[in-house]
Design goal:
mainly alpha; about 600 residues; about 0% strand; 5 strands; two-stranded parallel sheet; 4 domains; 25 helices
Length: about 600
């Protein structure tokens, strides 16, 4: 075994030696660009990422249903786990500070800034979590006793089954008393109620982890503990629901009849998150931007409507487009045609390349009726997930699905989800600077796919008025996402008002609009996710104007460079392409959009 390690170490040394010589070689044919895969900060990024994962994994429950590669959600941290994560963050900030920022390449400086940003943001999250946990701690006085049991389990402590049964019986009394206490509370701020629910859920999962570790393996534990455990477990589950039920939104929003539940985060938190994403605009400025883009779409839409003979009644023109849907069973065939249409156009106009394996290996899946309630349109990544009706759906639902996924609406969706969109991202992300995965942002992920919609429209991909209406539907949709999601999180709009806006202003089928709003506020999306599509796309489009339209890069060079930098804030992509001068205390300042 020792000789194997020595041989591996020698092989690694030889490989690094060869790579360094290739990197400094003056022979163009043999030059190897190390910065395509790494930077001076790569090692520290990987080490930090793996240390955080290791701690989350170790300090999380062992129960199969809550244990993943990365451990539990941050929101279910124990005080012990939170303390340890905090220590690691501060340790890595100290390590980062020892690096000589000024001697680094632009790639190392970008990695330095993004790692620093991630650590500082994680520290802030842990601090807020700790603050909220301390506020609800009085409702869970029994927590430390369960944490102590789980701590012993991690190293296989021998336990006294009779004693454990007695402890659980006493804890049960405390939980029941806490339930009665919380029932008397008039209300809790929603974030606090959610933190309470998460804390109790985490405690319940840790108790379950401990129980499943010993039960069946330790004879006396197995004889004494099951009955008191099962009673306590069900009581904790019920307690979590009671705490959550006390949550009340601190908002001026009017009564809502949609039945969609979410938590508006407010102006201050929106601004903070925008800063973290390196977006140097306020929520109000982004709403103004979306309204300006919407006005442009309106003009284009009216032109198309007039060409179709509907005058200024664009909704009638859109209605005709919606009713162009293909028969059931033929949607996959349409997807293939639309993919080839985009590919032919992109190659003919020298806008990019189609890597052979990326072009070969994307796949298709069909979306379930249940999933279509939340995602009424296509989804994608490695594959395109097709939203189209099944035999089990009601007649009206079938028609709405078919109308909402007609050929003209789908024209943008296919290249958005596949190549050159999300599938190409997946392909390239796994091959270049994959360590930057922890810097991922929807402004890059969704922005890139949306950028291609902007670029192809700009280049004339939509030739007929029907094709323009189809592509404009999605562009208006992305404008609307900015407007309704920010107004919601600012406390100005209810979910029902968001639904009505999508129906009246964009032309959504009502069921599809409800699915879109439910996805936005009840799904596992960040508050800025829906904003990221158009804003990220406009960022890349602005960068295209700066680098390609100026003649500094070809389209292929530009697109290849973005993909090889992997997923990160677009402002940092810009820094690498322009060789921008950066400082260790860099703050976002890029104004990528003109309001003139």
């Amino acid at each position: 075994m020792r000789s194997q390690f020595l041989m591996r170490g020698l092989a690694t040394f030889v490989l690094l030696f060869v790579m360094m010589n290739l990197a400094h070689s003056q022979t163009p044919a043999s030059k190897f660009n190390l910065y395509e895969q790494s930077s001076e900060a790569t090692g520290l990024i990987i080490q930090y990422s793996q240390d955080i994962r290791a701690v989350r994994y170790f300090y999380s429950p062992m129960a199969p249903q809550s244990r993943g590669f990365g451990g539990m959600s941050n929101n279910l941290n124990s005080p012990e786990q939170r303390k340890r994560l905090n220590e690691i963050d501060k340790d890595y900030l100290a390590k980062l500070a020892k690096l000589d920022f000024n001697t680094m390449s632009i790639y190392g400086q970008v990695d330095y800034l993004l790692l620093k940003r991630n650590i500082e943001d994680h520290l802030l999250t842990l601090s807020q979590e700790e603050k909220e946990y301390n506020q609800i701690q009085k409702y869970i006085p029994f927590a430390e006793k369960i944490y102590a049991l789980e701590k012993g389990r991690r190293r296989g402590a021998t336990v006294d089954g009779e004693k454990i049964a007695g402890q659980l019986n006493e804890i049960l009394k405390e939980v029941k008393a806490s339930v009665e206490t919380v029932k008397k509370v008039e209300s809790l701020d929603m974030p606090l109620a959610l933190r309470g629910e998460e804390a109790v859920t985490g405690i319940q999962a840790r108790l379950k982890s401990t129980y499943e570790f010993y039960n069946g393996y330790d004879p006396m534990f197995t004889w004494w503990v099951p009955k008191p455990y099962k009673t306590l477990d069900s009581t904790l589950v019920a307690f979590a629901k009671v705490i959550k039920s006390k949550g009340k939104l601190n908002t001026t929003q009017k009564d809502d009849v949609s039945g969609i539940k979410g938590v508006p985060i407010g102006r201050e938190e929106l601004i903070r998150q925008l800063g973290t994403e390196m977006i140097s605009y306020t929520p109000d400025e982004l709403i103004d931007l979306a309204n300006k883009e919407f006005a442009w779409c309106d003009k284009e839409l009216l032109k198309a409507s007039q060409e179709m003979g509907f005058g200024n009644d664009w909704k009638k023109a859109q209605e005709k487009v919606k009713n162009s849907y293909v028969p059931a069973g033929t949607q996959p065939e349409l997807i293939m045609k639309l993919y080839n249409d985009a590919k032919e156009f992109i190659l003919k106009n020298k806008l990019g390349e189609y890597p052979e394996i990326a072009d070969e290996t994307w796949g298709m899946q069909m979306m379930t009726p249940e999933r279509q309630l939340v995602n009424p349109f296509f989804l994608g990544g490695r594959d395109i997930i097709i939203s189209y009706p099944t035999n089990t759906m009601a007649h009206e639902d079938k028609l709405m699905s078919m109308r909402g996924n007609n050929p003209y609406f789908s024209r943008s969706t296919v290249h958005h989800e596949l190549v050159p969109g999300h599938h190409l991202q997946y392909y390239m992300n796994s091959r270049y600077k994959s360590y930057r995965g922890d810097f991922r942002t929807p402004f890059w992920t969704e922005g890139w796919a949306l950028y291609w919609e902007l670029l192809l429209y700009d280049k004339g991909f939509a030739k007929t008025p029907e094709e323009r209406i189809g592509m404009l539907f999605w562009r208006m949709h992305r404008c609307a996402r900015i407007i309704f999601s920010l107004n919601y999180h600012l406390g100005k709009w209810t979910p029902q008002e968001c639904i009505d806006f999508l129906v009246d202003r964009v032309g959504h089928e009502r069921a599809n609009a409800e699915g879109e709003v439910r996805r936005s506020f009840e799904g596992n999306y960040s508050p800025l996710y829906q904003v990221a599509y158009l804003i990220g796309g406009l960022q890349i489009f602005s960068l295209k104007n700066e680098m390609v339209d100026s003649g500094k890069m070809s389209y292929t060079q530009f697109h290849d460079a973005i993909m090889k930098e992997n997923n990160m804030p677009i402002e940092m992509v810009r820094a690498t392409l322009t060789k921008q001068k950066l400082t260790p205390d860099f703050k976002t300042k890029w104004k990528f959009y003109s309001f003139k």
